[in-house]
Specification:
Number of helices: 2
Helix content: 25-40%
Number of strands: 0
Strand content: under 5%
Shape: globular
Radius of gyration: 13 Å
Order of helices and strands: HH
Mean pLDDT: 91
């Protein structure tokens, strides 16, 4: 790939997923075996939110 991607602006959240899962919805980091790398998902979500000055509990369900 040439490093080009389409980013569709979908403003709705999945209420049953938590904050971190919604951030990476459809592009979750995976391990070598193809499983979701939960540690990396939470670490990267925390870094992203901190860089924006947003302080949320990453494991809070979006519905809350």
């Amino acid at each position: 790939m040439a490093g080009i991607a389409a980013i569709y602006q979908e403003l709705s959240l999945c209420p049953d997923l938590n904050v971190a899962e919604n951030i990476f919805l459809g592009r979750q980091p995976t391990t070598f075996g193809g499983r979701i790398d939960w540690r990396k998902l939470y670490d990267e979500a925390g870094r992203l939110l901190n860089s924006l000055g947003v302080h949320l509990d990453l494991k809070t369900k979006a519905r809350n």
